[in-house]
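Action item from last meeting closed. Structure (368 res):
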């Protein structure tokens, strides 16, 4: 089977690029003695990818109950469910742990900490520390931090943070500075809790940009990163990886041609690509995705999806489009702005290795 045989739109994963990205992250983490990598599978949502990213059933990060069950049943027992937990989900997670998993939860809420402490099942929790992203987490110098830790008592497993604000950086220097800011703040929180008698075996931090570019990770026990596996246009724009390191694209077919407007219509629209416009805030705006040829190479003028409807993507270019090579039914590939959201609409990956031959189909666990 080749790319010409697949229904469109569908998701293409280049395993060679994936392996290259995984190796780059492992090398970056290995620069820091004692630092472990806990890959975040929220982007990949695939056991086949997990076998490459977390071999030998190593520690992973998940973001949904569906992921936690799917990976636990596949053999990945050591997990952090890195989304603030609600009391209603504790029974389900405790059941996974009774069955042999060690899924740890996170919280930044005193009432939830009390619910975790009171639950009869086997549960452990990390307190989320806000290190500058201003999303979830307790400020590192807040009195609430100690109150939550005290409430968790022996169920306190450590601290975690997420430097999602690194996405506002535009250089390696920015990423290194934000990584150090994260490290300094979470270690300040850890120092205050340890002084109060709390054991904190896990100090978990990170994002893809900071995991790659941190200069010092002393005191951090593990780093979490996810989008580095596949890459996307936004991550390429902020310097996480090169454009050639985008491993996931959407295969689409030409369904309309307007030479008078120098536009094409593809059967990949907002549902197949997502409506994420993250590159709008970067030096180059790629609209709803960069259009490539069937082999994943740029077309003349590097056209983009300028408008996205539910099932239509309109291709526009500053250079004349090669209409003579693009009849109705011709296949193109689209590199996504945000691969996490793009992949979420698809049930499986069609795997290639640098060519057009489809060598495997890998399933995903979607929904919640």
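Sequence:
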């Amino acid at each position: 089977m080749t790319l010409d045989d697949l229904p469109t739109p569908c998701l293409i994963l280049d395993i060679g690029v994936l392996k290259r990205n995984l190796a780059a992250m492992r090398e970056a983490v290995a620069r820091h003695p004692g630092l472990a990598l806990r890959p975040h599978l929220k982007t990949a949502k695939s056991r086949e990818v997990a076998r490459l990213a977390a071999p030998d059933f190593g520690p992973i990060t998940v973001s949904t109950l569906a992921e936690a069950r799917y990976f636990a049943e596949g053999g990945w027992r050591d997990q952090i469910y890195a989304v603030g937990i609600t009391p209603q989900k504790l029974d389900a997670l405790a059941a996974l742990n009774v069955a042999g998993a060690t899924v740890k939860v996170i919280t930044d809420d005193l009432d939830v900490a009390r619910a975790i402490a009171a639950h009869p099942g086997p549960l452990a929790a990390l307190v989320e520390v806000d290190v500058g992203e201003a999303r979830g987490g307790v400020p590192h110098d807040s009195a609430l931090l100690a109150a939550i830790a005290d409430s968790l008592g022996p169920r306190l497993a450590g601290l975690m943070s997420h430097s999602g604000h690194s996405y506002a950086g535009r250089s390696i220097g920015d990423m290194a500075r934000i990584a150090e800011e994260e490290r300094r703040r979470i270690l300040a929180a850890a120092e205050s809790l340890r002084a109060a008698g709390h054991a904190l075996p896990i100090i978990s931090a990170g994002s893809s940009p900071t995991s790659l570019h941190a200069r010092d990770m002393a005191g951090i026990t593990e780093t979490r990163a996810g989008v580095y596996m596949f890459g996307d246009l936004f991550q390429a724009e902020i310097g996480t990886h090169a454009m050639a390191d985008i491993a996931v694209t959407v295969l689409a077919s030409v369904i309309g041609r307007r030479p008078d407007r120098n536009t094409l219509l593809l059967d990949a629209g907002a549902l197949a690509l997502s409506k994420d416009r993250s590159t709008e805030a970067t030096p180059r705006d790629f609209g709803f995705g960069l259009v490539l040829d069937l082999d994943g190479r740029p077309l003349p003028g590097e056209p983009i999806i300028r408008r996205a409807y539910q099932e239509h993507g309109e291709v526009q270019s500053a250079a004349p489009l090669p209409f003579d090579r693009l009849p109705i039914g011709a296949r193109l590939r689209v590199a996504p702005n945000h691969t996490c959201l793009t992949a979420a609409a698809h049930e499986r990956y069609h795997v290639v290795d640098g060519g057009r031959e489809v060598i495997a189909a890998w399933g995903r666990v979607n929904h919640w």
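Note appended to the action item: The two ends are 32 Å apart (CA to CA).
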